[in-house]
Amino acid sequence: MSTGSSTSDRGKGRRSRRSRQHHASHVEAAKLGAIPDHPDVPASEACLVDSVESLQEAVDHLDQHSEIAFDTEFIGEETYFPKLCLVQVSTREAVFLIDPLVNLDLHPVFERLASPDCRTLVHAGRQDLQILAREIDRPALNVVDTQILAGLAGLPWPCALSKSVQCAIDAPMPGGMTFTAWDRRPLSAQQQRYAADDVRYLPVLYDYLSARIEVLGHEKWAAEACGALSDPEIGHIDLSSQQRKIEGNRKFRPAERRVLTSLVVLRDAIAQEENLPPRATIPDSVLLAMTRKTPANPEAIANLKGMPRALAMRMGSRLISAMREAIDAPAGPSVPVPREERPEDRVAIDGLWHAFAANAIGKGVSPSLVLSRGELAHWYLTGRKETPGRAPWQQTMVNALLTPILTGEPPLTIQWRQGPLGEDRG
């Protein structure tokens, strides 16, 4: 028998945790710091939008502004698409908390956020932008992600919003509300303040980071990186990224890779049918185990650790058919396979990585925003042909930061653009 908990048990556990945090936010005395006095920070409490009239007031306000901060609160572990529970928008004058659970038509808000003449500010906003794109069937066209800006302005990657904001303004931001029951009403004062502060300070943070990026000369990189968030496909589920996460640095034979690709696609279809997140439907570890072992019957699938037994018995035949078809399918284009890493390879890769990281940090770029050591190692061990990096904007930066190290002409020199290295900035 499978020793893993069922999908429903895992969902109940997460819901129980959300309920506890939601309850705590209502019974504990709110200790909310004063909103700092700043001309670009809305001083008043957020306006809760839960009626047609208050929504129209919010839309009228947003239509008068060309810069809007945007965030959402959602529950993502219970349904295929995250359940939208709250929409936060802010200008430099006012904050609105819009309730999507009272049957309001939010299209005017999303249309304004997606307009090319509106600068939409987010922080780590990919999932929020995916929700927006699915709601109106098109992406936002003028997005700035302050987490990306932070990685190009001398801050670590990824840098949490609260840490980033503290670099720009002394502002108390309540924590501990991320994993609360955002779909329950009423929202407590703590929940509302937490949600409001997620957008309240983004304009000030944007100003601070933009000024640093201008000094460092990274405006073009920032525009290209943020421009990728306007991809028309942003609202679609990225199955290739799911497969890359499962693969990690593991090696696969061609047939195994075809099997894994087929299973990732089928899991997504089953997840849509079950209205569950893909990884809650069938965990990554189970897909990997099926890829390696190719179970012969539903019972064998049910016995895999972590596989929900009921799902295995209902869907086992489909999974087995998909695996067999993938094994028998003609081989596709060959995928570069890294050769075995030798000790001298590790020395070379470590040297390249540390030199790349030092060069990036010295120029005010967080190296992890651009490239990982694993990606660099894969590139090195597969012949060093194409530029490493997942996205074109990352490859652009890799070329600028790695080429001087590879060519040695001129010799690599690292200039620290943020003051003397080791200087106490406290």
Structure in words:
The protein is α/β, with parallel strands linked by helices and 426 residues long. It has three domains: 7-230, Ribonuclease H-like superfamily/Ribonuclease H (Nucleotidyltransferase, domain 5, 2-Layer Sandwich), CATH 3.30.420.10; 239-328, DNA polymerase, domain 1 (Orthogonal Bundle), CATH 1.10.150.80; 343-407, no CATH class. The chain is 52% helix and 7% strand. It contains 19 helices and six strands. It has helices at residues 7-27, 52-63, 107-114, 126-136, 146-151, 161-168, 189-200, 202-216, 219-227, 239-247, 254-274, 278-281, 284-293, 298-302, 309-328, 343-362, 367-370, 373-381, 392-407; strands at residues 47-49, 67-75, 83-90, 95-98, 119-122, 143-145. It has a six-stranded mixed β-sheet with strand order 1-4-3-2-5-6, with helices on both faces. Helix 6 crosses helix 8 (202-216), helix 11 crosses helix 13 (284-293) and helix 16 (343-362) packs across helix 18. It is globular and about 60 Å long.
Number of strands: 6
Count of domain modules: 3
Poorly predicted residue ranges: 1-7
Largest sheet data: 6 strands, mixed
Q: In sequence order, what are the helices and strands, one letter per element? A: HEHEEEHEHEHHHHHHHHHHHHHHH
Strand order of the largest sheet: 1-4-3-2-5-6
pLDDT averaged over residues: 91
Our Rg estimate from Cα atoms comes to 24 Å
User: Structural class of the secondary structure composition?
Assistant: alpha/beta
